[in-house]
């Protein structure tokens, strides 16, 4: 939710004014005898509203609102509205004003702390958000919301051990997300251990990850990296083939790496097996394999020729470049490969973020396992 139209703001403010009046006089009473007693600034605020100055009107009304049982929810609704509009400083000011009240019910104080933490998170002030979420996580009725938000803070800070701890706490109250999230945290920790050269710790963490989720291709990929470091190419090939079987979307990223580890004869056998697997899954998977192979400069590989011809001759978009016929297949594959080298290869299926690099964790919407291989190329 971004900028609201002025008319919408007007309706929101009108509801706000009614809430203020209700808090002062009560819905069950007649207002006629009280309107003359209203503070003059109410009328000033209404004048700002009528003259399409909603921000100034809101400032005026906020000065006049009492944080009592009748109006406190209006404060919270207004703060939430500001946060969603991206006006985080105003949301922070509203929630800080609530917390500054001396006579505030405990449940309202807790709610204000949670709202303020959410404000800081939206503003990117992660250290303040973290402290407040930790405080609110001690409140039983808000524990799940606070812990899940805290887990998100740790993800953004790349503090994977703390993120895993928050996940475990959520699991203890049966409020955790899917177990693949914990498996990813363990893989992140394994990758850090590999950077330190602590391969034994990395192996242990990968075993834990597999205990959280199976199949889990990311653990197999990291296992392949460890095998390569240990000069065990056959084991690395085994792990990579396992990962590609479990997740064909990784073909574009990992196929070149797999084929570098094997000789020419074994390469053709692997490609033939991949073709067979892709055909069994349908035309879209075969197309995925063909694009991954072309991007890896494998357009002339014998096991792929029939598949390339099938994809280019049957796909509605690619038929335009197949007019010259299969005799030109290698040249066309090279041209498409050159285009793919500069294409955006991956896209998040949650938020649409796209780029040339693959991410397990979307940098835009922070979803896990949401990236899929795709390519948009301009065909002449």
Helix content: 55-70%
Measured by DSSP, the beta-strand proportion falls in: under 5%
Poorly predicted sequence stretches spanning 5 or more consecutive residues = 23-38, 376-380
State the separation between the terminal residues, measured CA to CA. 39 Å
Number of strands: 3
Strands side by side in the biggest sheet? 2-1-3
Global structural class: mainly alpha
User: What is the number of helical segments per DSSP (H or I, 4+ residues)?
Assistant: 18
Main sheet summary: 3 strands, antiparallel
Shape: elongated
Q: How are helices and strands ordered from N to C? A: HHHHHHHHHHHHHHHHHHEEE
The average pLDDT value, as a whole number, equals 82
Supply Rg: 29 Å
Report on this model:
The model is unreliable at about 25-40 and about 375-380 (pLDDT under 50). The protein has helices at about 5-25, 40-50, 55-65, 70-85, 90-100, 105-125, 125-135, 145-155, 160-170, 180-195, 200-210, 215-230, 235-245, 250-260, 265-280, 285-295, 305-315, 330-340, and strands at about 345-350, 355, 370-375. Helices cover about 65% and strands about 0% of the residues. The chain has a three-stranded antiparallel sheet with strand order 2-1-3, with no helix packed on it. β1 (about 345-350) and β2 form a beta hairpin. By secondary structure, the chain is mainly α. α4 (about 70-85) runs antiparallel to α5 and α11 runs antiparallel to α12.
